[in-house]
Write a structure and sequence with these properties.
198 residues; alpha+beta; Copper Amine Oxidase, Chain A, domain 1; 2 domains; five-stranded antiparallel sheet; four-stranded mixed sheet; 6 helices
């Protein structure tokens, strides 16, 4: 009996206690997505259903899945490759799309990239909620949308140093002004002795 307990104790120490499997889940505008897959703390959803929800036509010729809308390419991804495209522009995915039971799966974050939808993961990253996944967002992405300028990485390369210089000079001027206004005054106030140079 002690030998069995010892072996079990060693097993638990060496391999840990198996955790209960947690089902991954994604909700798009209140509708649960079926057959969600979790890979490296990212959730993957079937490619076809959300694209058809937008009104796109989906084709799959292994390894490429393409969604077209009104004759134009909306999204194109290759299974196993993080490089894809959205409305003809290169786009890098967080994890590569996968082929699961004959279906193409893409990371849920891509839904936000396609239509400017909001994608929020749970703290343990086993579920995600997608809101505002609609055709208006797709059109905003295609036309550049309202915030395109600040989404451009090279713009930040110029803005950050400029803002740092402004902050440094602004802070220095404010500190000098504060020193000028904090002169000792009143009875018993003492000024520091003057510095003498030879």
């Amino acid at each position: 009996m002690r030998a069995i307990v010892s072996v079990l104790s060693l097993w638990v120490i060496a391999f840990g206690i198996p955790a209960a499997a947690v089902a991954a889940g994604v909700t798009i505008d209140g509708t649960d997505v079926q057959n969600v897959v979790e890979r490296n703390h990212h959730l993957l959803v079937p490619f076809r259903a959300p694209m058809e929800q937008l009104g796109a036509t989906v084709t799959f010729a292994n390894p490429t899945a393409t969604a077209t809308m009104n004759g134009s390419e909306l999204v194109k991804v290759d299974i196993g490759n993080v490089d894809g495209s959205i409305q003809g522009h290169p786009h890098q995915l967080s994890v590569p799309p996968e082929l699961v039971s004959g279906l193409a799966y893409v990371p849920v974050e891509m839904l936000g990239d396609i239509s400017r939808a909001t994608v929020v993961y749970s703290d343990d990253r086993t579920s995600a909620t997608v809101t505002n996944f609609d055709l208006a967002g797709v059109e905003a992405v295609g036309s550049g949308g309202a915030s395109e300028g600040l989404d451009t990485p090279w713009l930040w390369v110029f803005l950050l140093p400029i803002s740092a210089v402004i902050a440094a000079f602004g802070f220095g001027a404010a500190t000098q002004q504060l020193r000028r206004t904090q002169r000792p005054s009143g009875i018993g106030a003492q000024r520091p002795p003057p510095i003498r140079t030879r």
